[in-house]
Amino acid sequence: MSTAYSHTYFIDGRTEYRAFTAVNAALMVEPDGAYTPGSVSFQIDSDLTPAEKAEVAERFAEAATSWATELRAAAMRAAIQGGA
Fold first, then answer.
1. Would you say 34 and 15 are in contact if contact means Cβ atoms under 8 Å apart?
2. Which pTM was predicted?
3. Which pLDDT score is estimated for 64?
4. Secondary structure of 6-73 in the HEC alphabet?
5. How far apart are the first and last CA of the chain?
6. Distance from C-alpha of 78 to C-alpha of 76, rounded to nearest angstrom
7. CB within 8 A of 58, min separation 6: which ones?
8. What is the mean pLDDT of the chain?
9. Which sign does the torsion angle of CA 23, 2, 35, 12 carry?
10. Cβ-count burial of 3 within 10 angstroms (0-12 exposed, 13-18 middle, 19+ buried)?
11. Residues 57-72 pLDDT 10s
């Protein structure tokens, strides 16, 4: 499934992330903290096989890991430049 629109949420230290697999595979992102309005739910199609669901989740995780790696590298560069 795809959509023709996008949403931007600014996340900070209050952001909560929860994952579920019991009924339908879902990842919840709650930008303002747990159980507050404005949450985002990413659900994997229940028609997919367990292996296909895992592949979808792995692609999501790869993107998040790459993002975190780039942010860590930028933080390290800033720390080195600040210490010089």
1. no
2. 0.74
3. 93
4. CCCCCCCCCCEEEEECCCCCEEEEECCCCCCCCCEEEECCCCCCHHHHHHHHHHHHHHHHHHHHHHHH
5. 49
6. 5
7. none
8. 87
9. positive
10. exposed
11. 999 999 999 999 999 9
